[in-house]
Amino acid sequence: MKKFLALLLVVVPLGLWAGEKPWFQGSFDQALAAAKGQNKALVLKFYADW
Question: CA–CA separation, 46 vs 28, rounded Å?
Answer without folding.
Answer: 13
